[in-house]
Amino acid sequence: MSFFREIILVSVPLIFLLVAMYLMLRHFFKENGRQFDFLKNEQELQRLKLSIDKKLNSDKILIQHKLQAFERMALFLERINPPNLITRYIGANQKAPEFQKLLLQSIREEYEHNMSQQIFLSSSSWELIKSAKEEISGLINASMSAEMMDKSAGIFAQEILSKGFSDNKDPIDKAMQSLKSELADL
Question: What is the pTM of this model?
């Protein structure tokens, strides 16, 4: 009996010790799990914040590029507008055919210089800009006739301006309105 008594005397405190140790470890692992979850959530919040900041910076840069594209295309449209185009390139002692060539070359160069801006514009705005360029070039070519070959650049310029576009069919105005509408939506 004394053997059982000694085993009980030794095992009861050992059982209490094991139970206490189990409870302490369980509490420790719960707290550790909570801290781990908290740190994990904190890290996820930091990652999300960085992602949002990166997106905002990216959007800010994109908007700046879009605004620059709208500005450049509006300038392009103004530069190819026949009255502006003519006054910029007309010179004394110029003949109509060389003036025609100069005007068409200028339109082409301006267009090629600004072609990259199409990635920042809607397809419809870009198509209207291309159409305006083509219609202006068409107007210049349509104004040149066999009888114009010996005329001065001034007379040719008057012919272009007289044939011009009516207000409701002005391709530059249509393209400009599209740009303004797109800018308002931005």
Answer: 0.73
